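Sat 14:20. Reprocessing the chain from the morning session after the first attempt stalled halfway. Input below, unchanged.
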Amino acid sequence: MSGIKKTSKSWTTRRNQKAARLAKIDHLLKGKLLGNAHIIEALELLISPGDKVVLEGDNQKQASFLSKALNEVSADKINGLHMIMSSISRPEHLDIFEKGIAEKIDFSYAGAQSLRVSQMIEDGTLKMGEIHTYLELYGRLFIDLIPNIALVAADKADAQGNLYTGANTEETPTIIEATAFKDGIVIVQVNELVEELPRVDIPASWIDCIVVADQPYQLEALFTRDPRHITELQILMAMMTIRGIYERHSVQSLNHGIGFNTAAIELLLPTYGEKLGLKGKICKHWALNPHPTLIPAIESGWIESVHCFGGEVGMEQYTAARPDVFFTGRDGSLRSNRAMCQVAGQYAVDAFVGSTLQIDGEGNSSTVKSGRLSGFGGAPNMGHDPRGRRHSTPAWLDMINEQHELARGRKLVVQMVETFQSGNEPVFVESLDAINVAKQANLATAPVMIYGDDVTHVVTEEGIAYLYKAQSLEERKAALEAVAGVTPIGLRHTQNKVERMRRDGLVAFPEDLQIRRTEAKRSLLAARSVEDLVEWSGGLYNPPAKFRSW
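Finished this time. Tokens:
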């Protein structure tokens, strides 16, 4: 220690600042309970200009009472906030920037607000941090985006302040832990105060302030797909995926995106999959929200386990009645966890099957388009080959495409798209819009969702491109061209080249997989309406009113 001078400093500045802030609202609290009429006053006393504020707004559960209250604080008192949100979902999430309450945002997904986000960046009313994957954003909460304030939502609280988050635990524990254990302030809106909780999901010692909201938090039925809207083209693509990917590579664990094409796969397992004799061989373990279109496959014995990112409106009774399949508490309700399910989807599953809005000639893809800064949520976490993986499965080993003592397997990363979107916009494009968006939003790198060298398979209505087999970039490009239809990319292909790739197994058309296009009929679906799903569930599935047609 000789020659080194110890500096005299306080090591409890954050703790002291927290205590000073909380002392300002002592007169408003009864224990930890704050009357909802005092929420705006409390926020103005607790939040300081420039604070990092994490607001719970994932793609299902919204801390809607608290987001509306934040929108009502005085911009003279609270301004320049640095907002951290996994999903920009509600109008007031952006209103606070127009009012000057907030200045900068780091987020993962914008969805319905994506057009407005793009316009506000162009107008200079919103300063971009970065567009993150979910796990990336959660990780930064513990590193360099440590929150001063957390605004979150839960189902119930007891008098001590313990929380019950129910089926939609989502990202609540992650947000609270990052804040509470670095002396930030945790404010929770709950739907009701009860004497005894069904289970304790988050202990009272992590919580500073609880307010009973005037209305239950907003909850979206994001993962419900009405089978009536599944087309025969999507059924054909689903048949190819089952036969040409799941069966071929023995895919036993997987994650599905939320489109109608993956819903078609789920509804074909008890019919087409059964015909192929694949039960017990594929699709046994899932990292997935409780999609209602999974019900027939569960009921017919295909699925052994499902771990969920979040819940799904109307599936509460069903998941409670199937504890052998879902992760549930002693009270019967689902326990979801967005962060841990993202980890499972990244490292533990054989395959990710998703969709996108644009794919370029090398297989790079993005859901970010010109004028629409939507972000990409968790797809980049699950839609890439995690180099840290060390456990093997038959599907992972089947991706080895070289003879080498240190050769390793790969996760299957499947992009499943129709060659044209609605409005006759091609999915396969010469250059991703994300490149120009990066320039307009002053981003350091283009917001690519999944990089082409991570993609192992691309499925379109034309066929399957087995990109993992490509020995060069030129070969990968040629395989993509073969399944890209009459898009600008697809028009580059030559018949001779396509026939050679079919012989070499780089490309497979339906007939190469012993699938007749005329077989792809809606009669193959195990359920053809939401009413059918309710019947399969024995009445346990209670769909939202907008999905009822009977």
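The chain has a mean pLDDT of 95.
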